[in-house]
């Protein structure tokens, strides 16, 4: 196969980047591989075919490869995904139950992580405009927003109205009332929220800068008095249940390479998932939710806390773990701040340069942070929103309710606020992010059945308006930093969700002498 591809490359006078050549060699049909090379040459007018060339011509190539036969189309799709170019991909897995063949399929919605030009201040402005328009469309579906108008239409006459705006500023007056400045695409206006209106005042206290809300108010263009505040909010009114008795498991913050990595506990998990345990045998999908390795140079002096000081070797250890997971289980893995990719969100898939061993694992699908994964059974759809969770800390520090309950021990409470706002990180400075003028990728445009995160090293479960929230455990003993800030991890816990009855079970694989060991 490789010899025939090399012959085609030589005849066409092409030069392929090694990564591109390796992936094209995966085509099972030599003619499809030759056709693909021809397409790239014609549409790019290039003789040196690199990842950048494929990226530049991705849309045209995608349209044409969609016309390939199913096998060749899947080969082309695999190339796009492996190179981090594809925004969505279909995958199929076959399972056998009661001697009948069943097809499960999944669809992945990758976040747009491409940076096509130098980032300028105007890009952040356009990103906020895009966010406003996305969330405006959601809020406009509310039937109780009577007399909804844009800010520039508010005149000097007193009136009752509704507006949708982005929170530009929030401050407390001498009388302990709250002034909010809301802006839309037409202008801005001040809104007074009085303490006497306790419910609305409570909502105003938790407002975050740059989030989008709707307000019912009375007044004129000089000042509005708020009657109520509405968040975009998330609701699941009909809970999906599959007919097939299959399960999904969730892991997070493995931190391979840390001197506090819980290898014995993780081996215990691997033994279980390969066992004859009834629940283990039902697992068909496994989600890894970021910080899969401990990384190198993540914080000053980290080398003093590493058992493995090479990030490639850290990923090799992770790959050795994953290779022990049964092949019939499809694994989705997103990055976190410790992984080999940029920190700014949305994060691209883990870099092959440092994690080549992961790319060799057939049942592993690397995804962006965040990513929506949809599992299908016939016309039924189960939606999983994967987000590592960097902004959980900001919500806990900024929302009074979360501060008071010390929500680092109950992190799922903070994730509720993401669903409430339909945004993973609304405040401009809360996380590093890459602005997108066309569509803010951190908006929760579609309500998931499950929102799963990591980051805080504590397993926590919540149900928010029908949405199941899972914040992941970890596979790392308590670190000196956690001791300093008072965070107590809850390691080696694995939640398993049954998609037929939505029953959630928690399994504890912790080896206590390893967890309690003094370092």
Structural commentary:
The protein has 519 residues and is of the alpha/beta class. It has three domains: 2-75; 121-230, Nucleic acid-binding proteins (OB fold (Dihydrolipoamide Acetyltransferase, E2P)); 247-515, Purple Acid Phosphatase, chain A, domain 2 (4-Layer Sandwich), CATH 3.60.21. Helices cover 29% and strands 24% of the residues. The protein contains 16 helices and 20 strands. It has helices at 2-12, 18-24, 30-44, 51-56, 58-65, 70-82, 121-139, 198-205, 263-273, 278-282, 311-323, 392-398, 400-404, 412-421, 480-485, 512-515; strands spanning 15-16, 48-49, 88-97, 100-110, 159-172, 178-183, 188-193, 212-220, 223-230, 247-251, 283-289, 330-334, 364-366, 371-377, 380-386, 450-453, 460-464, 467-471, 493-498, 504-508. The strands form four sheets. It has a seven-stranded mixed β-sheet with strand order 3-4-14-15-16-18-17. Strand 17 (460-464) and strand 18 (467-471) form a beta hairpin. Helix 1 packs parallel to helix 3. The protein is globular, with a radius of gyration of 25 Å.
